[in-house]
Known about the structure:
The chain is mainly α. The protein is 56% helix and 6% strand. Among the domains are: 48 residues; 201 residues, Tetratricopeptide repeat domain (Serine Threonine Protein Phosphatase 5, Tetratricopeptide repeat); 144 residues, Glutaredoxin. The strands form two sheets. It has an eight-stranded mixed beta sheet with strand order 1-10-9-4-5-6-2-3. Strands 7-8 form a two-stranded antiparallel sheet.
Amino acid sequence: xxxxxxxxxxxxxxxxxxxxxxxxxxxxxxxxxxxxxxxxxxxxxxxxxxxxxxxxxxxxxxxxxxxxxxxxxxxxxxxxxxxxxxxxxxxxxxxxxxxxxxxxxxxxxxxxxxxxxxxxxxxxxxxxxxxxxxxxxxxxxxxxxxxxxxxxxxxxxxxxxxxxxxxxxxxxxxxxxxxxxxxxxxxxxxxxxxxxxxxxxxxxxxxxxxxxxxxxxxxxxxxxxxxxxxxxxxxxxxxxxxxxxxxxxxxxxxxxxxxxxxxxxxxxxxxxxxxxxxxxxxxxxxxxxxxxxxxxxxxxxxxxxxxxxxxxxxxxxxxxxxxxxxxxxxxxxxxxxxxxxxxxxxxxxxxxxxxxxxxxxxxxxxxxxxxxxxxxxxxxxxxxxxxxxxxxxxxxxxxxxxxxxxxxxxxxxxxxxxxxxxxxxxxxxxxxxxxxxxxxxxxxxxxxxxxxxxxxxxxxxxxxxxxxxxxxxxxxxxxxxxxxxxxxxxxxxxxxxxxxxxxxxxxxxxxxxxxxxxxxxxxxxxxxxxxxxxxxxxxxxxxxxxxxxxxxxxxxxxxxxxxxxxxxxxxxxxxxxxxxxxxxxxxxxxxxxxxxxxxxxxxxxxxxxxxxxxxxxxxxxxxxxxxxxxxxxxxxxxxxxxxxxxxxxxxxxxxxxxxxxxxxxxxxxxxxxxxxxxxxxxxxxxxxxxxxxxxxxxxxxxxxxxxxxxxxxxxxxxxxxxxxxxxxxxxxxxxxxxx
Length: 739
C-alpha cells in the first residue's frame, strides 16, 4: 500500500464526489486507500482506473463463462469458491495465448477477492510488459498468505524481473530465465502431480530443446490426455523441424478447444509445413470463423483480435496453394476492407490492413493478373516505404508480364531509386534486393538476353530460398522464384535444370501446385514418365477444388500424363471444399447490429437508433459536464458539425447527467450539431460496453453506426477519442459502403 496524507485523500475523494456522486466517491476512496497516487498533487482522471495505470489497459467489462476451451485446473488458495472458477478459466486461456480474455477472468477474480496473491500472478502472466511487472510486485506483497507451492510460482515470476546492476542486459536476461526455470523445476520435483509447472517448462523450452520438451509433454498427457497447453506447445515445439511429430496433437487440439481461434489456427501451421494443404485450409478457415463469431458475440472488431489478420492472410495463402484464386482474392479484400484503427490497424507491416495488401499482391502476381495489378483501385497503396516498394515491384511485374519492355524499364527504375531510402527502412532491405535481382533478370529475358536473365533470376531465387527457408508464416515474397526459374529453363529447352528448380521449390513448400505442375512437364520432357505420373497424381489431389480453367492445370493436363489423384502427404486429409465449417462461425466479417439505444434528450423526447435509419450516427458516451477532457472532445466534434453533416452523419452524445443539468451546461457551452441524451442509470453505456464492470464506473466511448444500424468501429477506454481526421475518413468509408 502506498502512503498518502489525509488532506490529500480528502481532496481526492471530494473531486470524485463532484464528478461521480456519493457512491462513486465512496468506492474511489476505498480504491485510493488501496492504491493512492504517489504525490499529493496527483488527480485521478475520470475514465481512468482508480487502482493505477496498470489497469487502464486491458479489458474493462466482466467475463462470461466460456465453454469449448478445454480445462487446465490450477488449484489456488481462496476464500470465495467462484475465484477458483475464474482463475481456472484464465489459466486455461493463457494456454491458448488468449491473454486478453484471460486477463478479463483474472480481473473478475480480483474484484471478488482483492487480496488473493495468485490472482495477481495470473494478471502478471496475461498482461505483459511493464504492466506485468506491476502485477508481479502486487503478487509478491501477498505471497505470505499462500501455500509454499503457490509461493514458488510467484517467486518464479519475481525471478524474471530481478536485475543485477553489475551485469549487462543480456546477462541479466539469461540469469532471469535460468532462475525462472530453476524455480519451475523445483515445483515439478516437489509436487510431481502438478501439471502446470511442467506445462510452463514446456512452454519455455519449445523449439529450443525439442526432444526434452517432448518428454515433458508426454508426461503431462499421460496424466491428462486433453491438456490444452500440452497439445498447443507440442505443435509449436515441432513446427519448424520434424513437423510430423506434432500431427497427433494437431488432430486433437482443435477438438479440445473448438471455441478458441488459436486452437484451430496452430494446427494449420504444421499442416502447411508438411504440405497437407486441405487440412491447413480447414484449420485456418475454422480459426477465422471462430474469431468472427467472438467478434459478433462480444461486440468487438477485427483489430481487437491479435491473431485475426494473420489467420485470414494465412488462409488466403493456403487457398492459393489449392488453386482457389477467387477465394484467396476475396480473403485479401476482406482484410483490406476491415475497419481501420489509428492504433491497432494502421500502417504497421503486420496490421490486418497491411497483411491484406500483401495477400492481394501475392495472389495477383502468382495468378498473373497483370491488368488488376495496374488498376489503381485494386490496391490503395499508401505512402509508406513498404507500399512504395511493393507498388513499384507490382507495376514492374505487370509490365513485364504484358511484354511491355519500355514501360517495364521505367517501373524498374522507380523501384531502383528506392534503394536510397533503405538506410531508414532496413527491415525491407533483403526483400528489396531480391525484387531488384528478379526484375532485372526478367527484363533481360524479355529483351532476349537469356544467359544474363537466367543468371540474375537464379541469384534472386537462391536469395529468396534463404530468406524463406526458416519461416513458417505466409511468405514475404509473392512467389517461389525457383518456380519462375524452372519455367524459364523449360522455355530454354533445359528440362533437367527445370526439374532441379521445381524440386528446390518443393523443399520450401511441400506439394506446391505450381512446382508440381512444372515438374510434370520437366519429368515428361526427360522421359521420366513414372516420376511425371507421381507429380501429376499429387497435383490433381492438391488442386482437386481449384478454380475452373486454372492455367497451370491446363498446361499439365495438355502434356498427356495420365494419373489418378493421390495424396502424398504424411497424414490423412479431408477435402476442404466438402467440409462444413458454418458451425464455427460466419464466412466473412460484417458490422454487427448496434445494441438498443433508449434515452431521453434534453427536451424529454425519447431517442432510439430507429430515428436515424438511413443516416450514419456518431454516438459519444461521455462522463458528464464535470469531465473537462470530455467537454474538450465534444467541442472538437461540434466545430466540425458541417463536415459530419456532409458525411450523412448525425452526432448523439449520452452521459449520466440529468437532462436539466445538461440544459444548464449548454447555456454556456457552444456545442451545436449534437443531440444530448441522459443515461443516469448507465443502462445504455452498459449495452454499448462503455462501462467498467470491475470498478463500476463509466468509460469514454466513440461509436460509429451506419445507416442500417450496424456498428462499424468504436473506441472505448480511459481517454476520449479526439482524432477527428480518422473519424472523417472512417465515416467516408462507411458512406461508400465499406466497413
